[in-house]
Amino acid sequence: MRKAISKAFAFLLLSGLVATSYAETTVTEKLEEKYFSTLDGWVKGGGQINEVQNTVVQTCGKLVMLTVNDTEKLALSTTRREDFDFRVDVCVQMTVNRSHPQPQFKKTEIVQMICDDNTVVVFKKLCRRSGLR
Asked: Which of 97, 87, 95 is nearest to 118 (CA)?
């Protein structure tokens, strides 16, 4: 009887851990989709330049931090701040490019460098979202 209770408890505990892990992933995915939807909405709304700072830059900052692991979050917010700024800038430029074509995205080597030759997850997602890949 005691063994059965222990197994049942272990199963419930494991189920809870799996459910928690799944729920976290789902929340992260929903938040990521919300941020991408905000950027899409800015583009669909005509890409108002006076909204770039409050809509696009802020959303790109949130998106960049959402798509990195905890170690990178700490580094990007402290010692590697220039990397954070660079990633946000690329996100902003790629989003703005969808409404107001940016000359750098006409260069295949720039697009390849951003979309293919790096490991920044958010860049790959932005490339697909923006139609560059």
From this structure: 87
